[in-house]
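REQUEST ID: PR-0412
SUBMITTED BY: lab tech R.K.
PRIORITY: routine
TASK: structure prediction, single protein chain
INPUT:
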Amino acid sequence: NAALEVIGSGYARTGTDTLRTALNELGYKTYHMKEIIQGKLLSDIHDWIALAENNCSDVEALKDLFERGGWTATVDFPSTMCWEALTRIYPDAKVIHSERKSEEEWWDSASNSVTIIHTKFPLNIMNRVLPFWRTKREMLNAIWSACAGKKVSDSDPGWPSVYKSDFLAAYSANNQRVRQVVPSERLLIQDHSKGWTLLADFLGKDVPNTPYPHRNTRVEFIRFAHRLSAMVILTAVVIIALAVFIIKKIGQVSVKGKTNKTE
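STATUS: complete
OUTPUT:
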């Protein structure tokens, strides 16, 4: 089974999708929240909920999450929640940390994207009706609760602003913690504005002949959410149309049966 070679420790909305794309270009198979969504990895979601609740203490569950999928790198939530545990499980893995220029800049991005997009129509309906999305919402609440150090939910009044101080404190503490516990020779604070050089050198890879990616800006994130919304609406229309068709067929059969009895 493949072992993790790269562990991302930066919170969501710090360029994690850019890092995912760059790592894939360098030959890694990179785990990211998008992989969970696009692959409908429901078993992974259940595992992450449990890991959020046990503070990432289940070593075997963590190993199985990555090794069963053959992942060699991981960035973004939910794995960021467990980066420190992962560094102990995979002592040879390199750690790449990403962060915003300031805490307020991170909050401005996060509070207008990952913390709220699933609370807007039609994703909010999807998160309450469809099993995969309902469980994913439970996972997100579990992750944010683990970050805040207390039980929080996107259904709480004033979400997410009511927890701004908790999330900013968690974000700041995470940025400090990675510098405190990861040896400098094992850690890269990735500056996306510097392009390939730092990243490729740190990982011992050749610099690709392609431009360094810049992915998942706020606009792109919103477009991604809109595509999900369109998919949900289309699915709902198909289900409703199919239900109407079946009901009509049942009605026709019923009427035909009564007519035959009368004759």
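NOTES: The two ends are 70 Å apart (CA to CA).
REVIEWED BY: pending
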